[in-house]
Fold this sequence. Notes:
Layout: E1 12-16, E2 21-23, E3 27-29, E4 31-35, E5 45-55, E6 60-75, E7 78-87, H1 90-93, H2 95-106
Parallel strand pairs: 2-7
Antiparallel strand pairs: 1-4, 3-6, 5-6, 6-7
Amino acid sequence: TVVAGEIKHVTSVTLGNTVDSLIVGQTNTFTATVAPGDATYKDVTWSVEGSGATIDQTGKLTATGAGSVIVKATADGQTASHTVSIIADVESVFPLVAELIAEKKEK
Length: 107
């Protein structure tokens, strides 16, 4: 039974729709499940540590440059995290190879 005014704290946060890597320019929207479902303060705050991506408050991660990031979802002091590698796209890493591929396609 929940007494009026009683605070029910979050006991865990679990990430869903996770990916281990993205290519620069790609996006992925993570999900977060807060337990218990009837917690008083279950609003999730998204953050990212590292370089190579940004995240908005809907959990949408956007890969902006090569690197590695830790995606974090926090609710009522409980945090879940997941590491994502951000890989440069082939055309930015190997411009000569991309040019050769383009030339081959033209033939």
